[in-house]
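Reminder: ligand-aware prediction takes two inputs, not one.
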Amino acid sequence: MIMPIARLLIVSLILCCAGPLQAAPGPERPGQAGIASPHPLATRAGEEILRAGGNAFDAAVAVSAALAVVEPYGSGLGGGGFFLLHRAEDGHEVMVDARETAPAAAQRDMFVDEQGERIPGLSLDTVLAAGIPGLPAALVHLSREYGRLPLGSVLAPAIRYAEEGFEVYPRLLTGLERKRAELEASPASAAVFFPEGELPELGSRLRQQDLARTLRRLAEQGREGFYQGPVAEALVAAVQAEGGLWTLEDLAGYRIKEREPIVSRYREARIVSAPPPSSGGVVLATILNILEGYDLQAMPPDVATHLVIEAMRRGYRDRALYLGDPDFVDVPVARLIHPMYAAGLRASIRTDRALPSDWLPGIRAREDGPQTTHFSIIDADGNRAAVTQTLNFWFGSGIMAAGTGVLLNNEMDDFSARPGVPDGFGLVTGDGNAIEPGKRMLSSMTPTFVETPGGVAILGTPGGSRIISMVLLGVLARVDAQASAREMVTRRRFHHQYLPDLVVHEPGALDDAVVEGLRARGHQLEETGGDYGNLKVVTWDYEDNRVEAATDPRNEAGEALVY
Ligand code: GLY
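Here is what comes back for the chain with glycine:
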């Protein structure tokens, strides 16, 4: 069942000596465009821009800004994100890193008390929770460097949605109910989301005039419209009024980073994904490299599932141990994504038994917020964008700066709050992700491209620490089973993140025989209360030169479109 050692070595040697990983050749262009996003108005904003002559990058700006308006619980101008891009004409691949940064006055232990304990809520529901936003800078950068249309044109749909309003829908109501206390504690948030002092009616119109004005300033003035002048002053005033740390210099000094994506190979596929400060691409590559040593399709399902779980355990351990902002810490990326390193990890995996996580040397992992949002786009020329963006937990901190319509994120919670302090297991949290001024907090957002000889898939999802395992299962479905976009988003999910040492799974994800097989190997299983995730996939299949777009059936609000 396990690949013989000799074959393994040959595969590893071929992989590590094969030179740069090139994209598989396909038809020249798809001739069709596809968009999958979590909200119909965002999808239509992208379509409007493509029909007006924009490319996938213009459409990405339009969809991103539209989501900031119509999905205020998932992302926004006050947050950040990662934009993974592929330009068709020259194959240029880049990730625009718009992750938030810690303000200059941030301190390593700002969220712990004298005993070293995390102070409840401080990194979640207060102005201290907010990092310096990156999304507005990314919208301007993408438009200027990669788009064809003026920024004002691509932001027009979002401005319209903010001004004219959109219909309140069930998931928005769910978010408002969950975060009601925090939103009501912020007068500006309360005025927007509870205009009559009550939850808005399903189907009523939600208008955001201040947000429309802020978007208009961005459209007219570029990054200065947000990071300097009245918007910046209002943001800093709101944060400082409640004892926060932001300054005008923090905002003026914010810069996006263009980063080289993580490129790895799984079987015959080339995988392009998010580099640090995302943990996604590295962990995905490690897990796939481990799985490369097995023929999962030829194995009984319980064995294959066990091996995927063991690979997840090891990949997620590395996340906790090694990853952080590469501008501040030395992340050993080349080693972590090398097939020979994975071969070492694979050597500790047995087919008949789970290895408890605390038998692996490591540290305690932190959870990321489960909200966030993702969309995928291809245009008729084959330009691609996979974009995951976030405020962290529902509506971020819930605090809105008066006069701006901008919700402050609570991304500071993604830093390690207690670096160096052993927890109940005697394990310590990683220094690599400790708070430092100007540093980006570690993320799990994993926008990804999968290139096989048969075509391309563009995918990603929200879901906190489960993002990486969801993208992994999508990649496995595509590469091992040639899954369509629809099949990729529909596939049932399971997850292991090293700590807690637990396999969580959706109802019905594992059949009785697999459950029995996993328990017999020592795995602890827990069914999630319901389904999770919101995968968005666009595929381009070369054989019939066909584009397919699919949104996760778990989120009825999403809309996929091909034209
Ligand atoms: N805040 C979620 C993430 O960045 O992974």
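The chain has 19 helices and 20 strands. Residues 1-20, 421-429 have pLDDT under 50 and may be disordered. We will return to this case in the review session.
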